[in-house]
Amino acid sequence: MSYAAAASLQAAIYEALSADAQVASLSQGAIYDALPPGPVPALYVNLGPERVRDRSDKTGAGAIHDLPVSVITDGPGFAAAKTLAVAISDALDGAALSLARGRLVSLDFLRARARRAGAGREIEIWFRARIDLV
Hints:
Blueprint: H1 6-19, H2 21-27, E1 31-32, E2 43-47, E3 51-54, E4 62-73, H3 79-92, E5 103-117, E6 120-132
Parallel strand pairs: 1-2
Antiparallel strand pairs: 2-4, 3-4, 4-6, 5-6
Helix pairs in contact: 2-3
InterPro entries: Gp17-like, Viral_Tail_Comp_sf
Protein name: GTA protein ORFG08
């Protein structure tokens, strides 16, 4: 097993979301790995933690990465967050991302959860990435 492609996968996801016209417009470019100091926008995207499992075989090393992308809003309703979450899902589900390390075999929607978070709302969209290390 290897965690070697984790940073490369995260960078590729960030780049894909930032380059997607719909996601960039709806989030107004507020896509974060770590929240910036000070106030945050009313609606933003946060790249979350991940779980990684070995998927090596006789042909080489590989891993499965399960990772959430969260849409967070301080608004009272889900409409804006769901619209942005749909755009994120459209941008990433089945995407053929280029990694600086390793080869992305697949990137697929896994599950989602919408919930109240204090006075706001949060939608976690989980994706599963299969990576071969070549």
